[in-house]
Protein backbone atom coordinates (compact mmCIF):
# COMPACT_ATOMS: atom_id res chain seq x y z
CA UNK A 1 0.00 0.00 0.00
CA UNK A 2 2.85 2.37 0.84
CA UNK A 3 4.39 1.71 -2.57
CA UNK A 4 1.16 2.67 -4.39
CA UNK A 5 0.86 5.83 -2.30
CA UNK A 6 4.48 6.77 -3.07
CA UNK A 7 3.98 6.17 -6.79
CA UNK A 8 0.75 8.21 -6.79
CA UNK A 9 2.42 11.06 -4.91
CA UNK A 10 5.39 11.01 -7.29
CA UNK A 11 3.02 11.08 -10.29
CA UNK A 12 1.14 14.09 -8.91
CA UNK A 13 4.41 15.93 -8.22
CA UNK A 14 5.67 15.15 -11.73
CA UNK A 15 2.45 16.46 -13.28
CA UNK A 16 2.55 19.64 -11.21
CA UNK A 17 6.20 20.19 -12.06
CA UNK A 18 5.43 19.99 -15.79
CA UNK A 19 2.43 22.33 -15.77
CA UNK A 20 4.63 25.30 -16.72
CA UNK A 21 6.13 23.36 -19.61
CA UNK A 22 2.74 22.47 -21.02
CA UNK A 23 1.86 26.14 -21.46
CA UNK A 24 4.99 26.85 -23.50
CA UNK A 25 4.69 27.83 -27.11
CA UNK A 26 7.84 26.64 -28.87
CA UNK A 27 8.32 27.95 -32.40
CA UNK A 28 9.25 24.52 -33.72
CA UNK A 29 5.98 22.91 -32.70
CA UNK A 30 3.68 25.72 -33.82
CA UNK A 31 5.53 27.22 -36.78
CA UNK A 32 6.12 30.94 -37.03
CA UNK A 33 3.93 33.99 -37.03
CA UNK A 34 4.68 36.02 -40.18
CA UNK A 35 3.14 39.18 -38.68
CA UNK A 36 5.50 38.98 -35.70
CA UNK A 37 8.54 38.41 -37.91
CA UNK A 38 7.53 41.26 -40.20
CA UNK A 39 7.23 43.76 -37.34
CA UNK A 40 10.46 42.53 -35.74
CA UNK A 41 12.25 42.99 -39.07
CA UNK A 42 10.85 46.53 -39.33
CA UNK A 43 12.30 47.30 -35.91
CA UNK A 44 15.64 45.75 -36.87
CA UNK A 45 15.81 47.78 -40.09
CA UNK A 46 14.96 50.94 -38.17
CA UNK A 47 17.85 50.23 -35.78
CA UNK A 48 20.22 49.54 -38.67
CA UNK A 49 19.23 52.40 -40.98
CA UNK A 50 18.04 55.00 -38.48
CA UNK A 51 16.39 58.10 -39.96
CA UNK A 52 16.70 56.69 -43.48
CA UNK A 53 14.05 54.05 -42.69
CA UNK A 54 10.36 54.78 -42.02
CA UNK A 55 9.58 52.20 -39.31
CA UNK A 56 5.92 53.12 -38.70
CA UNK A 57 5.15 52.85 -42.42
CA UNK A 58 6.81 49.45 -42.47
CA UNK A 59 4.77 48.26 -39.47
CA UNK A 60 1.57 49.56 -41.08
CA UNK A 61 2.33 47.54 -44.21
CA UNK A 62 2.87 44.45 -42.03
CA UNK A 63 -0.60 44.93 -40.60
CA UNK A 64 -2.18 45.78 -43.95
CA UNK A 65 -0.73 42.76 -45.75
CA UNK A 66 -0.92 40.47 -42.67
CA UNK A 67 2.84 39.79 -42.66
CA UNK A 68 2.98 38.48 -46.22
CA UNK A 69 5.62 41.01 -47.32
CA UNK A 70 8.44 40.60 -44.82
CA UNK A 71 11.17 43.25 -45.16
CA UNK A 72 14.78 42.10 -45.21
CA UNK A 73 17.17 44.87 -44.16
CA UNK A 74 19.90 43.82 -46.59
CA UNK A 75 17.52 43.38 -49.54
CA UNK A 76 17.03 46.77 -51.19
CA UNK A 77 13.92 45.65 -53.10
CA UNK A 78 12.08 44.67 -49.91
CA UNK A 79 12.85 47.88 -47.99
CA UNK A 80 12.80 50.45 -50.81
CA UNK A 81 9.17 51.54 -50.11
CA UNK A 82 10.20 52.48 -46.58
CA UNK A 83 13.35 54.50 -47.30
CA UNK A 84 13.36 58.28 -46.81
CA UNK A 85 15.26 60.74 -48.96
CA UNK A 86 16.12 62.93 -45.95
TrEMBL record:
Record bears the keyword Iron: no
One record GO biological process: neuropeptide signaling pathway
InterPro entries membership: Eclosion
Disulfide bonds: 38-62, 42-58, 45-73
Keywords noted in UniProt: Disulfide bond, Hormone, Neuropeptide, Secreted, Signal
Leader peptide range in chain numbering: 1-24
Localization per record: Secreted
Any one GO CC term of the record: extracellular region
Source domain of life: Eukaryota
Alphabetized Pfam families for the sequence: Eclosion (PF04736)
Keyword Flavoprotein: no
Gene Ontology molecular-function annotations: ecdysis-triggering hormone activity
Family named by the database record: Belongs to the insect eclosion hormone family.
Function: Neuropeptide that triggers the performance of ecdysis behaviors at the end of a molt. It triggers adult behavior patterns: larval, pupal and adult ecdysis, and plasticization during the molt.
This protein's name: Eclosion hormone
Organism: Galleria mellonella
Amino acid sequence: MAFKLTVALFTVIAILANVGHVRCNPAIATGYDPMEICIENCAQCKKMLGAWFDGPLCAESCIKFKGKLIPECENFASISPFLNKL
